[in-house]
Amino acid sequence: MKLAGKCAVITGGSGGIGGAIALRLAGLGARVAVGYHRHREKAEAVVASVRDAGGWGVAVGADLTRRDGPRLLVEKAREALGKIDIMVHAAGVEFYRLVADTGDEDLRHLLDLHLASAFSVARQALPDMIRQGWGRIVMVGSIWGEVGAAGEVAYSAAKAGLTGLTKALAKETARAGITVNAVAPGVIDTGMNGAFSPEEREALLARIPLGRFGSGDDVAKAVAFLVSDEASYVTGHVLWVTGGFDPLP
């Protein structure tokens, strides 16, 4: 699974999963653009780790919830990289709230960040991929986008939209040599799950047959497979990365 000569953009690259994806793809030889919004220092730390390991990376900032944010991010990345072969959308935030306590602005923000920006960055990256006759797009969804979660209805809805986007875009771009897939992580031990109490963590762990929480690198390995030539006949697929997690309470 070598990616030498490939250029990858990772939105949300300053986060635990996005950062792990950037490091994994760079380790396979790709030049990476690490996207961020508020956490520039974290993105720069990911880039520093990439360079320390002998890879090539750059941090690119933009607010993906703004109308021109996805375009700005992709343009900055293209200017730094020269081209875009791989687009991984890992930007996202956690949101635990009952429907009755979820406002219209909350829902709009989640849809803008998780779904609308995914649509936009993919659209912005497609011309490079079509021109090259080769491309890889991977959406980082969630197990809750597949089965839904009480207390995370708005989040689940936004992530579920990524599934529809993935499957439809895969059909539309296949003849251009582009594959589009998604990963659906389960309980990953990153900052996004830091709100769980020790009791909640213990209860979640009991529902994971492999007996441990996932890591950002577990997700990154799945993404690395999907963007490689090893997965050249895989498209329109949502790959669960859950350790066998039982999502039903």
Which secondary structure elements does this structure contain, and how are they paired or packed?
Blueprint: E1 7-11, H1 16-27, E2 31-36, H2 40-52, E3 56-61, H3 69-81, E4 86-89, H4 104-132, E5 135-140, H5 143-147, H6 153-173, E6 178-185, H7 198-205, H8 216-227, E7 238-241
Parallel strand pairs: 1-2, 1-4, 2-3, 4-5, 5-6, 6-7
Helix pairs in contact: 1-2, 1-8, 3-4, 4-6
Beta-strand portion reads 15-25%
Number of beta-strand segments = 7
Portion of residues in helices? 40-55%
Radius of gyration, Cα only, in angstroms?
17 Å
**Widest sheet: strand order?**
3-2-1-4-5-6-7
Describe the fold and architecture.
There is one protein chain. By secondary structure, the chain is of the alpha/beta class. It has one domain (7-239): Rossmann fold. It is 45% helix and 16% strand. It has eight helices and seven strands, in the order βαβαβαβαβααβααβ. A seven-stranded parallel β-sheet has the order 3-2-1-4-5-6-7, sandwiched between helices. Strand 1 (7-11), helix 1 and strand 2 (31-36) form a beta-alpha-beta unit. Helix 1 crosses helix 8. It is globular and about 50 Å long.
List the keywords.
8 helices; 7 strands; 249 residues; 45% helix; Rossmann fold; 7-stranded parallel β-sheet
